[in-house]
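hey m, so remember when u said the tokens were messed up on ur end? i reran from scratch. heres the input so u can diff it against urs
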Amino acid sequence: MPARPALAVVVQRYGPDVTGGSESLARAVAERLAALYRVTVLTTCARDYVSWRNELPAGTEWMAGVEVRRFPVEDERDLEEFNRFSEALYGRPHGRDEELDWLRRQGPYVPALVRELDASRERFHAVMFFTYLYYPTFWGLRAAPGRSVLVPTTHDEPPLRFGIYREMFALPRAFAFLTPAEEALVRARFPLTGRPATVAGIGVDAPPSPDRAGFRARHGVAGAYVLYAGRIDAGKGCAEMLDFYERYRIDHARAPELLLIGNLAMPSPAVKGVRYLGYLPEEEKAAALAGADFVLCPGPYESLSIVLLEAFALGVPGLVNARSAVLQDHCRRANGGLYYEGADEFAEAFRLLSHDAELRRAMGENGRQYVRENYRWEAVLARYRELIEAAAAA
């Protein structure tokens, strides 16, 4: 057998206990590509994106057939201070130096990773970068643009208008998008002509027999419930979701319970009918999804939403924020969920899905078929491999 080519994967955080859509995608792709390439992940010692605090040891370890090299973050982030700086910058004219200052504050500030990539780039057949937004991708692409693939996981947000990202999107040799809506957004902002680009997506595997009854017993869930799974954060639309749910319960006291699972990045909710179950392992999360009447996806900025696709794969419909073009597009293409723009639409859609079991069943089956047709790992990995080889040939 010929030696497997060396492939580098650059991502801001990495590991089985690291939550986040782009990080989960990077790990899933890296582990599966390890059968075809000698995969080296270049990442940080940070576990959480809020502070970028170094919690994992620097150096090299092997995880699921992947070499993982961690580099220490030099500056922790004060999120409140960073958000104040960002809002002020977004609201006034500014120059490139200020954008680069913003990028360093955004983090994770890890110059040692960039230096290593600069020094070792020639030994890699190709380099894949996950997420356009962060310091390792911006400076890593400048260090190793030659055989690069960018998986930008883009959504419409103020930094996407920065001049530094016009510079950055000019560098990759190939692009992998997660949805048609994301590709359309990027093409509307940046010229990609002449460079390979495709909607590669992610593979979604539905567990064969989630333990719904066991989940209910372990967490004391007796009646109907709806589920939010992911980072519990105001920026992910959770504060608005909780407000809308609280208003809905005023007139619907017997509404299904709202269960929250994931890492808490905001004050613990004190809303009647809402329970926070903490961070759950994947098998338990799948059981929670499978038993839900529907899954709530309130994020206004999403580039994919793995949770929504996992719910679809299990035959569970979604109720999503219409301000996210990606979430709305999933629901429309699949006919697998409803979407809302404000409190009144949230309440009407919530009521409809709560009371109409036949509608939930039909939408759930539509979602299952949508995932089957578009998100099989075999097809997804073939698309990633095609882009890797195109970048290597460039």
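this time it looks ok to me. The mean pLDDT is 94. if urs says something different then somethings off w ur setup not the seq
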